[in-house]
Design brief:
Blueprint: H1 2-37, H2 39-66, H3 72-90, H4 95-123
């Protein structure tokens, strides 16, 4: 627990330092732009850049939210794959059983992809 708190504290400090560095960087950019184009134009360029970055982040979040979530069965199969591989490697399960299990998982993944492709064709 103490280790996790230290790790998350360091992550928080890193994020804070990145925010401070970005602020100083924007201030330096504003200074350079103000020397070439004037203070008002420099402020407008910085504001426009920040607005564009926010719009891109918003669009990415909307795109990720609109995607369908994978089924819980597929997620469980994908999570169980490393465990199965370790059991096969340890010799507790024969290599043939591991091969059959891998083929079943591969068939599940491919079947879902093919079914998703048919669903997309029917919608259009």
């Amino acid at each position: 627990m103490r280790r996790n708190a230290a790790v998350y504290g360091l992550y928080l400090a890193a994020v804070l330092l990145i925010a401070c560095a970005a602020g100083y960087g924007l201030d330096a950019l504003h200074t350079v732009l103000a020397l070439h184009y004037g203070a008002v134009a420099a402020s407008l360029w910085i504001a426009g850049g920040l607005l564009l970055a926010a719009a891109v982040a918003f669009a990415a979040a909307a795109y990720i939210k609109s995607r369908r979530r994978p089924s819980k069965r597929l997620a469980a199969a994908m999570a169980a794959a490393p465990v199965a591989a370790s059991l096969v490697g340890s010799g507790k399960i024969g290599w043939r059983a591991g091969l059959v299990g891998g083929l079943v998982v591969l068939g599940l993944v491919l079947g879902r992809q093919l079914a998703r492709g048919r669903d997309d064709e029917e919608e259009h």
